[in-house]
Amino acid sequence: MRIDIVSIFPEYFAPLDVSLLGKARAAGILDIEVHQLRDWTTDRHRTVDDTPYGGGPGMVMKPEPWGRALDAVLAAGREAGPAAPVPRLVVPTPSGRPFTQVHAQRLAAEPWLLFACGRYEGIDARVVEDARQRMPVDELSIGDYVLAGGESAALVIIEAVSRLLPGVLGNADSVVDDSFAAGPMSALLEGPVYTKPASWREHEVPAVLLSGDHGAVARWRRDQALLRTAANRPELLAGRGPDDLDRRDLEVLDSVRVPGTVQDVAD
């Protein structure tokens, strides 16, 4: 996968050279280029922002350097002969759609991603409007809070996407058991995990995990996933009933009375 990133703080992306992502880059699985937005300014101060039309606090990122930057990255990518004629532009912004594992899976299927990292009050809206005429665009939010810029959000999205690529994880089965992964544990948080030693500071690993009974282990893990989801993210269970929860699932949830679930509404 090719990934281009445009930012006024390229140094922010040093973490892309470490851990799994660093290994993926070294192995050629990821081809990542980080670009300095100021390289496409034309004044001696390398200005990338100005006051907002209509008044208000803060500054807005100017369309001219952004337009030239996206044009240049698009042209360079085409010259390099990427697998796709255009990238998918990803704009991290608190006003975007919530980023989920479903988005990560969809983005992982793309051969080329281009990240536009805004700062200040954001990027002039005409930049995205213009980009939509040339490439698909996703405006994504990683949570209901505001950051100083899009760089840390881009790192989150890139890591979530990259770990889904073949060859990035040492054990490909790890993706299957992720929280929010598709399958029988879909939209459930992952339960607690343990490793050796079996006893540590008088805390014992649950006996079922040492039993060798794979069916019992699978059931325990699902029970724990249900309990953790009920405690930390009950909205993920809202509306669930017999069509997607078995009798044991309902018994587990009944023990904690999750508001909004089918068995709670029925009462």
UniProtKB/TrEMBL annotation:
It is found in: Cytoplasm. The gene is trmD. Belongs to the RNA methyltransferase TrmD family. S-adenosyl-L-methionine binds at G118, I142, G143, D144, Y145, V146, L147. SUPFAM superfamilies: alpha/beta knot. Specifically methylates guanosine-37 in various tRNAs. It comes from the Bacteria. GO terms for biological process: tRNA N1-guanine methylation. GO terms for molecular function: tRNA (guanine(37)-N1)-methyltransferase activity. This is tRNA (guanine-N(1)-)-methyltransferase.
